[in-house]
Design goal:
The complex is a heterodimer.
Chain A lengths: L3 H14 L4 E9 L4 E8 L6 H6 L16 H10 L4 E7 L3 E9 L11 H11 L4 E9 L7 E6 H8 L7 H22 L11
Parallel strand pairs in A: 1-5
Antiparallel strand pairs in A: 1-2, 2-4, 3-4, 5-6
Chain B lengths: L9 H14 L6 E6 L2 H6 L1 H14 L5 E6 L11 E5 L5 E3 L4 H12 L13
Parallel strand pairs in B: 1-2
Antiparallel strand pairs in B: 1-3, 3-4
Helix pairs in contact in B: 3-4
The chains are: A alpha+beta, B alpha+beta.
């Protein structure tokens, strides 16, 4: 995977496969602390403690179509190679929460990538899931934080039975998400002049 | 640069969409499914899906449902796109780049012509 946004899409697909009704995806570019953090929280079927501990192993998967599961191990490895970390908490019947952290300025950190397309494709493909997307930037230079919050529920309520793939609707949603993400992205580009030294 | 939309515009958008739908006759439902497992995503499935959505927008294609599925067990054929036209059997295409996705939308979804070269052999 070449983007953090692609990893997040992959992790969110796990939540969908776990029959989640509510999925919250949060990305925070904290330039003050030099961190890029992300989390995916779902209320799907969850996993036992044994399974939760085991899924970071590439040769463990709940899938039946093949015997390896690379999504989680790849993301964990990407974070750990950037002074970061990776945690999964899960409880059977309750849901799963995944947290990932990267050193924002790390030379090996893959780009965040196309977050708006990740959000758009998830929402359009699974309109019956209640999606909450948060994208936050905390600039290094003391400027106020910038935040984009996308809640799918009011949109679905307003649209009624009109599908998201109707062209006018699709254009509206795409521009809405792209506009919000671009606004936060602009704030996250206000970098400090001296990169912080790695502890 | 499009102006940032506000959610208040949604009701108007809905009316607009309903208006356009009335013009179309009730054709059978068309479903386009993109496989979005880890294998699919790594092979570029998100860009393939984006190309399908872009095609719907730029060609004003009404009445197509676009959805996703997980890994279908044919990872070497990713990105995989399946097209179901009404009652017809599902057609599964392999190695669908954004360019090929546009072609599928033009020829199969719009004109009903199956692109046999890209169909995954059973």
């Amino acid at each position: 995977m070449r983007e953090i946004a692609l990893h997040l899409l992959d992790i969110a697909e796990n939540s969908v496969a776990a029959n989640a009704k509510n999925i919250t995806l949060t990305v925070c570019e904290d330039l003050q602390s030099d961190l890029l953090t992300a989390s995916v929280i779902d209320d799907g079927r969850g996993m036992s403690a044994e399974m939760t501990a085991a899924v970071v192993d590439p040769f463990v998967t709940s899938r039946t179509t093949r015997k390896v599961g690379l999504g989680i191990p790849l993301f964990k490895d990407a974070a750990e190679s950037c002074n970061g970390n990776f945690f999964i908490n899960s409880e059977t019947g309750k849901g799963t929460r995944l947290d990932v952290k990267f050193q924002h300025s790390h030379i090996d950190r893959m780009p965040l990538g196309d977050l708006s397309t990740t959000m758009l494709t998830l929402f359009v493909a699974y309109p019956n899931i209640h999606w909450l997307f948060n994208y936050v930037a905390i600039p290094a230079n003391g400027l106020p934080e910038e935040k984009f919050v996308f809640d799918s529920q009011p949109i679905i309520a307003d649209l009624g039975d009109v599908p998201l793939t109707e062209p006018v609707v699709l254009t509206f949603i795409r521009e809405y998400i792209e506009g919000g993400v671009a606004r936060v992205q602009a704030a996250s580009n206000c970098k400090s002049t001296i990169p912080q030294l790695i502890k | 640069m499009p102006s940032i939309k506000s959610l208040e515009d949604l009701k108007r958008i809905r009316e607009e969409a309903l208006e356009k739908r009335k013009v179309k006759t009730a054709e059978g439902s068309i479903q386009v499914t993109v496989a979005m497992g880890t294998c699919g995503i790594a092979a570029g499935a998100r860009d393939t899906m984006k190309a399908i959505l872009d095609h719907i927008e730029s060609n004003n294609v009404s009445g197509v449902i676009v959805t996703q599925t997980g890994c279908v067990g044919k990872c070497d054929y990713e990105p995989i796109v399946a097209v179901t036209m009404g009652e017809e059997p599902k057609v599964m295409y392999g190695r669908i780049t954004p360019e090929r996705a546009h072609k599928i939308m033009q020829e199969h979804v719009a004109a009903g012509k199956v692109l046999t070269d890209w169909v995954i052999p059973a």
